[in-house]
Structures are given as structure tokens and as C-alpha cells.
Specification:
7-stranded mixed beta sheet, single chain, 2 domains, Acrylyl-CoA_reductase_AcuI, Rossmann fold, acryloyl-CoA reductase (NADPH) activity, globular, ADH-like_N, binds NADPH dihydro-nicotinamide-adenine-dinucleotide phosphate, GroES-like_sf, Quinone Oxidoreductase, Chain A, domain 1, alpha/beta
């Protein structure tokens, strides 16, 4: 038996509860992992609250991330005792996920724990942090360098945003952080933000083109926020777009793209190829200051996850949440 959050269909929506599950009910997969730590991502919060149709089949154990120790493996790449990390691949959406004492998955979905991170730190990073790294890599791929000019991060006090600010600052970029929570200004400055901007400046419909300001941007918001960010990009600047915290719509014009040569680089973590994942984790090991990581994480026990999911969809969680499950 192991403990897990379980989402089941109900007449009016869904039931979510912390429950005990027999090992025999684990889904098919080549590697069984004892989960040491999981985490709460925005997508998990949407799944647990039922705010968006994330869950594809019921009953579902949510949790798009886990870090743990291999208990049994039919995959020659892994042996019992190996420390592994999982991010995405539809886990927690259509395959039972990481907010549980055990998980069973396809060995090809796992990556070995990246040194020098601990299992706990790997979940401090989680999909949000690994996506932040993918966004920074997208900016680099498109030629955005620290000397190119200021870069912007939206949703900065959230998970992706906090890690993106910390990485970009460590790499030497001048980072402006957009937040709807001015009370988090000191937190964002401690992560390395040079300037704090009020989200309200970005949330209303704007002009197709605004004064050129940003050489690069990481956007977690979508909606008018993304449209306004694109409008204020410098000539040949790049926006890495990964989120929809402000909405799925993209109410913009093509003006920034055809008149300023702006690149809109989409970032997906779920189906990201293995080589890029391994590269992102290597880069996190070199470009994310562990002290900054400690400063942006907090623990929430498995029995507190359902309440925390409600807070997260309201944008009230700061930084990253670690969920200790079995521990080290
Ligand atoms: P969090 O909940 O931790 O952070 C989201 C942040 O967005 C909030 O903290 C808030 O920051 C900001 N925000 C909330 N509402 C709005 C709004 N209406 N307008 C503008 N900003 C808003 O989530 P994550 O950081 O984990 O994820 C951020 C987004 O990225 C989500 O949409 C998520 O689904 C997406 N994502 C996508 C991935 C991919 O593979 N493409 C992978 C991981 C995440 P503040 O208070 O500072 O304003």
C-alpha cells in the first residue's frame, strides 16, 4: 500500500482525496519508483481543482513530476537503487503521476538525477524550473546575450518566473520582473531582479507596437500580457512563451514580427526530447545558484496539497513547492 492523491469522476465534476492504494493498482511500466519528493506545478493545481480539463482518464493520480529511487526495473538503463527524476510525458494527465508514494512509468521517460542536486532539490526545480531553463536556452539559441539589453520575466513571483529570474541574473542579464504582487519585490530583488514592474501595465489591450525595450523575454502569462510584451521587444528580440496564467488567447498583431523581426519561441516541457532535457538539467546544475533555489522553495506535505492547489490557481503561491513523500 502507498499513499496518493486520487482524482475520481463524480456526478458534479470530480472528487479528490488523499487515499491508500494497493501496489497492484499501479499502471503498466518498466520501472517502479519509490517517490521521495514530488512537487506542485500549475498544471497539477488545474488538475486537482478541476479548473481545466488536464486529467484525460479517471481515476488519476496527479503529479507531473517526481524524484525518487528505483525499486524495480525491467529496463536495462536502470537498476534498483538508482536515483531518478521524471518531468512530464503526460504523467499526472493520462498516466498515474508523482503525488504518491510510488509510481510506475516507462524507463524512457526517466532521467538520472543530475549531480550535484539532491532528490529534494530536483523537485525544488521540478517542471517549472526545468521549463524556465528551456526558456533561457531558447533565448540563447536566438542570439539573446547579456550585452543585448534588458530582459523581462512575467509571472515573476511564480515557479517558472522565480527560477527564470534567478538563472538569468546569474548569467549576467539585467532582469526586469513583472509581478501582480508588489509585496514580493524584495523576494524578486534577492533572486536577482534589477527592476520590478507592475503587472497592471501589461494586462490591458495595448498598441500593436510600443517603445522598443526588451532584448529578450520569458512569458508565463499569455493573453494581453504576451501581446504587450511582443509589442515592446527590441529589433530582432526573442520572447520565449511557455504559459497561460493570464489566458490561452493571444490578442496581438503581426507588427512586432514583420516590422521588428521579433521571434516568438514556443517552449514545451512535456514532450521535450530527451537530449534537450538532459541538456536543460546540466545547465541548471551550472547556472542556478543552489542558495537561490533554497530561497524560492517551501515544503507542503501530501495532505496539504489539495488546499495548496486552490491557492496556486489563485496566484497566491510564491516560488516553488516541494512535496516530501517518502523522503531521502
Ligand atoms: P505559478 O502558479 O507558480 O505562477 C504563475 C504566476 O503567473 C503567478 O504567480 C503570477 O505571478 C502570474 N499570474 C497569475 N495570474 C496572472 C494573470 N492573470 N496575468 C498575469 N500573470 C498572472 O505557475 P508556474 O510558474 O508553475 O507556471 C506558469 C505558467 O507556465 C502556467 O500557465 C503553466 O501552465 C505554464 N507552464 C508551461 C510549461 C510548458 O511546458 N509549456 C511547463 C511549466 C509551466 P505574479 O504574482 O508574480 O504576477
Amino acid at each position: 500500500m502507498f499513499k496518493a492523491i486520487l482524482i475520481d469522476k463524480a456526478d458534479s465534476g470530480q472528487n479528490v482525496a488523499l487515499t491508500d492504494i494497493e501496489d497492484e493498482r499501479l499502471p503498466a511500466g518498466s520501472v517502479t519508483v519509490r517517490v521521495a519528493y514530488s512537487t506542485l506545478n500549475y498544471k497539477d493545481a488545474l488538475a486537482i481543482t478541476g479548473k481545466s480539463p488536464i486529467v484525460r482518464s479517471y481515476p488519476m493520480v496527479p503529479g507531473i513530476d517526481f524524484a525518487g529511487v528505483v525499486e524495480h526495473s525491467d529496463d536495462p538503463q536502470y537498476q534498483a537503487g538508482d536515483q531518478v527524476v521524471l518531468n512530464g510525458w503526460g504523467v499526472g494527465e493520462k498516466h498515474w503521476g508523482g503525488l504518491a508514494g510510488k509510481a510506475r512509468v516507462d524507463g524512457g521517460w526517466l532521467v538520472p538525477l543530475q549531480a550535484p542536486f539532491t532528490l529534494r532539490q530536483a523537485m525544488g526545480i521540478g517542471t517549472a524550473g526545468y521549463t524556465a531553463m528551456l526558456c533561457v536556452m531558447a533565448l540563447e539559441r536566438n542570439g539573446v546575450k547579456p550585452e543585448s539589453g534588458e530582459v523581462l520575466v512575467t509571472g515573476a513571483a511564480g515557479g517558472v518566473g522565480s527560477v527564470a529570474v534567478a538563472i538569468l541574473a546569474k548569467l549576467g542579464y539585467t532582469v526586469a520582473a513583472v509581478t501582480g504582487r508588489p509585496q514580493e519585490s524584495d523576494y524578486l530583488k534577492a533572486l536577482g531582479a534589477h527592476e520590478i514592474l507592475d503587472r497592471a501595465q501589461f494586462s490591458e489591450p495595448g498598441k500593436p507596437l510600443a517603445k522598443e525595450r526588451w532584448a529578450g523575454a520569458v512569458d508565463v502569462a499569455g493573453g494581453h500580457v504576451l501581446a504587450n510584451v511582443c509589442a515592446a521587444m527590441r529589433y530582432r528580440g526573442t520572447v520565449a512563451a511557455c504559459g497561460l496564467a493570464a489566458g490561452m488567447a493571444f490578442p496581438a498583431t503581426v507588427a512586432p514580427f514583420i516590422l521588428r523581426g521579433v521571434t516568438l519561441a514556443g517552449v514545451d516541457s512535456v514532450m521535450c526530447p530527451r537530449a534537450d532535457r538532459l541538456e536543460a538539467w546540466r545547465r541548471l546544475a551550472s547556472d542556478l545558484d543552489p542558495a537561490k533555489l533554497d530561497g524560492l522553495t517551501r515544503d507542503i506535505a501530501l495532505d496539504g496539497v489539495i488546499a495548496a492547489a486552490g491557492e496556486m490557481v489563485q496566484g497566491r503561491i510564491r516560488g516553488r513547492v516541494i512535496v516530501p513523500v517518502g523522503g531521502d
